[in-house]
Request: fold
Amino acid sequence: MSDRSGRTRRRGDDLIHAIHTAVLEEVVEVGVGRLTMDGIGKRAATPRSTLYRRWSDPVEVLLDALYHAHPVEEPTPGADDLRGDLIRALKLMVTWTLSPAGRAVAAILTDPLSATKMSEALQERVFAHRGGTFTSTVLRHYAERGAFPAGRLTPVVADIGEALVVKRLLDGMPPSDSDLIDFVDQAILPALGLSAPSSDSDRADAATPRPPA
Reply:
């Protein structure tokens, strides 16, 4: 059923999803500085008053959308596949960077004014509450279970995988599965004082998706 303005009446999760989708598209197109409730409402085909019932301003809408769209890597419960979990975490990151939420974050952080305004909020309101960035979730999980000395998990080591993925993306080519394996085997594991298997069969196994639990 539609009202006289042509908007479809949506409620609950359908409405929230439409608003989240709209704000992610809107920020890519206009940037954080020009983000408005009017613009989000028009793109979502919903009244501005509906937005104000839930959020105080357009940045709050954006942070809420990014929070709900941010995936969380779930490491192997037994902490027995550090290498595989790191590779899967980087694959998850690549998928996310190519999603609407990933493109929105890229648009925010590549604009100096938006980055200054939003970087702290992104860290505190999105990444930290969703387990941190991708490989850091895995690395903390394994450090806490004694897979390697916790002192080796420095901020630099925690960021190596993500930094290499971003470098490839900035070069204009998303990293392949083989690239991600190399990032883990040649950078992250050595930084932890660990060695990676060298056989081709181990590399093939690492590139194979983990079956659902």
Summary: Confidence is low (pLDDT under 50) at residues 1-6. The radius of gyration is 20 Å. The longest helix spans residues 12-30. The chain is about 65% helix and 0% strand.
